[in-house]
Design goal:
Length: about 350
């Protein structure tokens, strides 16, 4: 029984035309578009659906304003779907849709959909990396690309009033695996049927940059390598999309947690779309870790955000197989210490 990853996300937006253009420029494949919705997909078959705010096909409002209002998780078989449904149904209201999918609102407010997914196989060939005395490309140049083409939806990120409880709901009812904990900031997790470091990340909604309630933060897409990430970033900039990372913080960066290369683009509906490459891939032999958030957030950054500068960042990481790090963070508390100093410029390293 497996959940294979994000099968679809459904956005609610004020300006459908502008948001549609954003995703075209971002490199997604356009499936259909009319005056009420635009549908895009990526190589795995994962879909990104954009609808106008107030569209009656959207679930009941879980947070005010724009963003991802519904995340569909793709399940491997109908038997698996039935099993997950009965587990949810024992404790929560479940809505069965005509297409066979099932909806449920998690206690933190997030609307979750489940449906059977015929996930497509994806092929990638990042260019080998040369180093002195370690020649992987001899007389062979790197790939010349003319655009960035995201292949996967890697993860979604939401603010939560109790990020430990948000994870534990997914762990109990949907068999999600705990991968890492950025202490005071949030928990990273993945379903059992996919191997990206995380498919979902819940962020403490009491951080200074957070809205103080449940809400959508960002969505990330998998690309082949750093070259494709930077090509995408250059194209988005050329087409006039604002990029907070360029203006104030970050730019091209690499997280220590997850090892991923990343670059954020501001979406016209608020929140960010993330180009993402070279993340850790993990399975059930992975040992989760609990990190000081400053140490875990950045390995390096083109333009290091203020709170991540300086030589006083502790190399603080502990293995956390038993989830012992959760206890002090079980309910969202007003952030103290460095957590209370996070600014918008620091946000893009989280
Ligand atoms: Fe991310």
């Amino acid at each position: 029984m497996s959940i294979l990853g994000i099968e679809a996300v459904v956005f609610a937006v004020k300006d459908l035309e502008k948001n549609t253009q954003f995703w075209i420029d971002f490199g997604l494949n356009s499936v259909s578009s009319d005056e009420t919705e635009s549908v895009f997909d990526v190589a795995t078959g994962s879909k990104l659906i954009v609808r106008k705010l107030g569209d009656d096909r959207l679930p009941a409002e879980s947070f005010p304003g724009e963003g991802v209002k519904l995340t569909y998780w793709g399940v491997d078989t109908q038997d698996s779907l039935d099993d997950y449904t009965s587990r949810l149904e024992a404790d929560f209201d479940v809505i069965r849709q005509d297409d066979g999918s099932v909806l449920c609102q998690a206690p933190d407010g997030q609307w979750i959909g489940l449906r059977v997914w015929d996930k497509k196989v994806v092929f990638s060939q990042p260019d080998a990396v040369n180093a002195p005395g370690n020649i992987k490309r001899l007389n062979l140049h790197r790939t010349w690309r003319h655009k960035a083409i995201p292949k996967t939806i890697n993860h979604v990120v939401f603010f939560s009033g109790d990020y430990v409880a948000s994870f534990e709901f997914y762990q109990k009812y949907l068999d999600f695996r705990y991968t890492d904990h950025s202490k005071g900031v949030g928990i990273f997790a993945r379903p059992d049927g996919t191997h990206e470091h995380h498919s979902i990340f819940w962020v403490n909604d009491q951080l200074p940059v957070a809205p103080g309630r449940f809400g959508f933060m960002h969505i990330a897409f998998g690309l082949d390598d750093i070259d494709e990430v930077m090509l995408g970033a250059n194209i988005m900039e050329k087409r006039g999309w604002t990029n907070t990372s360029n203006n104030s913080s970050g730019g091209i960066s690499r997280h220590r947690i997850s090892s991923a290369i990343y670059y954020y683009c501001d979406m016209p509906c608020g929140g960010e779309a993330e180009y993402h490459a070279d993340t850790d891939y993990v399975d059930d032999n992975w040992v989760p870790r609990a990190w000081d958030f400053k140490f875990g957030s950045l390995l390096w950054s083109h333009n290091t955000p203020p709170i991540f500068r300086g030589d006083d960042i502790p190399w603080d990481m502990e293995f956390d197989l038993d989830q012992k790090s959760f206890e002090p963070f079980r309910i969202s508390r007003k952030p103290t210490g460095d957590l209370s100093k996070i600014t918008e410029e620091d946000e893009h390293a989280l």
